[in-house]
Write a structure and sequence with these properties.
The protein is α/β, with parallel strands linked by helices. Helix content is about 35%, strand content about 20%.
């Protein structure tokens, strides 16, 4: 008599499912036969992911115990994945992380959760750690003291398409032909490919329940940070960069430098740079006694970079560090017309009719930003991006995850996709530093008699006198930026339609509904 696989009847709860690792882990757990429940603060962020209909989505906040008790989040959970980190938020994050960990520890024990799997950070022992590494270690300790068997996996630099570490290495190497660098470029680091991290996370659910300890995990290579940058250069077809280690680069100054030349914002760069002051190399390899290496062995650094570059080139970046890092932008949707919920509001409305079909117009709208730009006065957009970087914002260089398709929650330069109705409507919420709240809406609608109508609306809710002065100060620029943008978008839609009719090619495939398997992930 053959019984149904045990894993098909088990439930995994994933926290941090909107983040870089969590967003990749969920589809792989589903493929492995797990029933998956995800806990998120904003369910809307998952409205557009391919697996949203295959999981149970529960709204709650780890730092708010009542919100989790109200929905009985931990009931029936066999394995809990703790993948949440507060780094990148405003103010001190370590207090928030400890509160969240204690809440989870107590509720998981009460609900008889069988195992907790935590992804923390690789760090040296007996050292005064940075706030970031100290907080991760403290969270692991709280979970291991919960009474629920916990595997705390400690990883160093994670290399994969869209990872924070990979993006920082990529931009530093590509932008700078010569790199004056802090002395930590000489520190040894043991990077690990994201595919190997996922391998360990999934396999951790199968180890004996009695296990309750930390495990160092890392790839096969131990490198200095400077070697990692030049390893990237080789894989990207660039000349290796001369690197000069300068002691004058304090962690704070180095983080400003990273903020300036990469899309990593200052409040995220600071804790990362502070952590790079330490050598992060595995001190034990006990994980091998419980979890074998993936088929083909662990992925070397150069191969991990090669795979990540391939994913970027093919527009298949599955998740990105940008997905869960919101730079102080409002979480609420724009208030409804016509009274704007009592707000003072400034708008700029542009309407254009075009002979292009709505589908052709929509393709231009959905492809906006990134390498395609914003279709009007590019110098002004670049200047605004640099201004934002100088005040600690995200700047214009975050780009976009996929060159052709957008999803709810995607970062798009210094905007974020707040709402998308595929084929007709796109609303972007500003994440640049502004004295107020700003949105940009673009609509493609059929026009009576043929063709389509393009509607573009910029909306700004000023904050105090500074917000009002800001709007009026940029009003002259809006006088040619927004009309020019509307004109160029509609013109481009017509040209693209004509080009498509003249040179018909194979149909472009939309992103696959299923994510790549763990063997293909980068």
């Amino acid at each position: 008599m053959t019984s149904e696989p045990e894993s098909a009847e088990r439930t995994a709860l994933v926290t941090g499912a909107t983040g870089y690792i969590g967003g990749r882990l969920v589809p792989r757990l589903l493929e492995a036969g797990w029933k998956v429940r995800v806990l998120v603060r904003s369910p809307q962020k998952l409205s557009d992911v391919p697996w949203t209909d295959q999981v149970e989505i529960v709204q709650g906040d780890l730092s708010d115990r009542a919100s989790m008790e109200e929905h009985d989040v931990f009931a029936g959970v066999d394995v809990l994945y703790y993948l949440v980190h507060s780094m990148g938020g405003k103010g001190s994050f370590d207090g928030t992380e400890l509160t969240s960990a204690r809440n989870v520890a107590q509720l998981a024990l009460k609900a008889d959760v069988k195992r907790i799997v935590y992804l923390g950070g690789l760090h040296p022992q007996g050292t005064n750690l940075s706030q970031h590494l100290r907080s991760r270690a403290a969270v692991g300790s709280v979970l291991m003291q919960s009474g629920v068997p916990t595997m705390a996996l400690q990883a160093g630099v994670i290399i994969g398409s869209g990872s924070t570490s990979f993006e920082m290495i990529r931009h530093l190497t590509e932008v700078l032909p010569y790199m004056p660098a802090p002395k930590w470029v000489r520190n040894r680091i043991q990077p690990i490919a994201v595919r190997d991290v996922l391998h360990y996370l999934i396999a951790a659910a199968e180890v004996p329940d009695i296990l309750n300890r930390t495990f160092d995990i890392g790839g096969p290579d131990v490198l200095r940070y400077g070697q990692m940058m030049n390893g990237y250069a080789v894989e990207a077809g660039l000349h290796q960069r001369p690197i000069a280690s300068l002691p004058v680069f304090t962690p704070w100054l180095a983080s400003q430098w990273v903020n300036l030349v990469s899309p990593i914002p200052r409040n995220l760069a600071v804790p990362i740079i502070e952590s790079l002051q330490f050598e992060c190399v595995a001190t034990e390899n006990d994980i091998k006694a419980y979890i074998p290496d993936p088929a083909g062995g662990l992925t070397g650094y150069r191969r991990a970079v090669r795979l990540a570059l391939g994913k970027m080139r093919d527009g298949q970046v599955e998740t990105s560090w940008q997905d869960s890092v919101v730079q102080g932008a409002p979480s609420d949707n724009i208030p409804s017309d016509p009274d704007w919920a009592g707000h003072t509001v400034y708008t700029d409305l542009q309407v254009r009719d075009t002979d292009a079909k709505p589908g052709d117009l929509w393709r231009v709208i959905e492809g906006i930003g990134g390498d395609n730009g914003w279709y009007s006065f590019p110098i002004a957009w670049v200047a605004r991006g640099w201004m934002d970087k100088f005040v600690g914002g995200v700047g214009l260089r975050r780009g976009r995850r996929n060159p052709d398709h957008l999803h709810t929650g995607d970062a798009l330069d210094f905007w974020r996709v707040e709402q998308i109705k595929r084929g007709s409507f796109l609303r972007l919420r500003a994440e640049m530093k502004v004295p107020g709240r700003a949105w940009l809406e673009m609509t493609a609608a059929p026009r009576e008699g043929g063709g389509s109508r393009y509607t573009q609306r910029a909306v700004f809710f000023p904050k105090g006198l500074g917000g009002r002065l800001y709007w009026y100060s940029i009003l002259p620029f809006h006088g040619f930026i927004f009309p020019g943008m509307a004109n160029r978008i509609t013109e481009t839609a017509v040209k693209e339609a004509e080009r498509k009719n003249e040179h018909p090619g194979p149909t472009t495939k939309a992103p696959a509904d299923k994510a790549d398997t763990a063997e293909e992930v980068a």
